[in-house]
Amino acid sequence: MAGGRDYYEILGVPRNAGQEDIQRAYRKLARAYHPDLNSDPAAEDRFKDISEAYNVLSDPATRRRYDAFGPDFRQIPEDADPGAWRRSRAGAGAGAGAGRAGTAGAGAGGAGGGFSYGAGGTDVDIEDLFGGLFGGRSGRGWGPVPGAGQEAELPLTVGEAYRGGRKSVTIGGAGQRTFEVNIPPGVTDGQRIRLAGQGGRGSDGARSGDLYFIVRILPHPVYRVQGRDLYLDLRLAPWEAALGTSVPVDTPGGEAKVTVPPGTSCGRRLRLRGRGLPNPRGKPGDLFAEAKIMVPPRLSPAERQLFEQLAAASGFDPRRRQ
Amino acid sequence: MSYALIRTTRLDLGAFARATGTHPDLIRRLAALGIIDARQGPSGELWFPPGQVAAFARVQRLRAGFALNYAAVGLVTDLLDKIAVLEAALRSSRRPGDYPRG
Questions:
Q1: B21 contacts chain A (CB < 8 A)
Q2: CB proximity A134 to B under 8 Å
């Protein structure tokens, strides 16, 4: 069952839509949500719903029965009169008419004995879902078909990428699934983590596809990430930059000291070798502290005097042509 | 009796047909059409990289889902592969906020 939602709603057509409108809506949605064209894990359930809705509404006979009896129409005997059924249901509650449960709707062929999506207990044959549009021509004869691969984003902070470890991630729309993902230390942006057999479901008991988590490293207030290298701004007072100093900086692995050589100008990159993100297969990344010279926004009289003295004594011209 | 000197990871026609649950004739036809990737051995026998089992499953799903003929399936799978490469390149290129300045 398509999550209890109305088939017309799923296809986005009005109840009085013509067969052509239904087909057009189905084709458009199928292109958007087919598991091979849309690797979002939620797309597969959506595609299943769309196919089921089309399967029912594309056949005028099943559509009439769906209109008359609603989503449970497969449980209603085929010769039931809609008016009488509704009256008996209103009178005797839900019991009436349920005697022949499992009677398949005309053309829907629930007796395929193949793969069942099982959620609502209704026997839905995958060949009907995939082959519904084509009069049963296409799906037949293939046998079991393995499922498609799926992709989901895995947003990680710089700290999580540095340390690695397990992370609980929930994906999917209607059929939400939670995974404990093992993150190796030092994953990089765009790297794929494979969960074998957790992707799209196969038909007829064929194996499922793989699920890939694509690592996305979230923007960090301090670090900028490029591959395994980290960049951060190292704020310096003008005299620190001119005279040199040693400044403690926070790295993901703990505090480290950066030695600022005398005569450091803005933008100079000071490398802390190996203090970037670790690399399980080789050299770890580096951490680059970029000198950024800050001046006091307001000068005290003493500071002003000293700067004026410096300006008068210095022959340095930063704009001089080399 | 011959022994493989290295562990082979490729599949012959029979193994590929069993793995995909299809008739070898159909596999041969799809290989001839270039829809699945096959290598030819010295005596003309076909060999398949194991990844082609998944590729073949995609061919089946696309054909069933969109009533595509084999030429169209080939085109669609080629385009999907191209898109996957482009998307990966797009992901690995930096986002504006992550760029190191300077």
A1: yes
A2: yes
Asked if A139's CB is within 8 angstroms of B53's CB, the reply is no
CA distance A238 to A241: 5
In whole angstroms, give the CA distance from residue A147 to residue A48: 13
Q: CA A256, CA A46: separation in Å to the nearest integer? A: 51
Complex ipTM tops 0.90? no
| Closest-CA residue to A202 (of A251, A149, A255) | A149
How far is residue B90's CA from residue A233's CA, in Å, rounded to a whole number? 27
Task: Look at residue A76 and tell me whether its pLDDT is greater than 80.
Answer: no
Residue A241's φ and ψ, nearest 5 degrees, are: -65, -35
SS3 A291: strand
Residue A200 has what DSSP assignment?
S
Instruction: Return residues 246-285 of A near B (CB < 8 Å).
Output: 267, 269
* A88: three-class secondary structure by DSSP: helix
- What's the one-letter identity of residue B32? A
pLDDT in tens, A218-277: 999 999 998 899 999 999 999 999 999 999 999 988 899 999 999 999 999 999 999 999
The Cα–Cα gap between A146 and B57 comes to 6
The CA distance from B57 to the nearest CA of chain A, in Å, is 6
* Tokens read off for A305: 């005097």
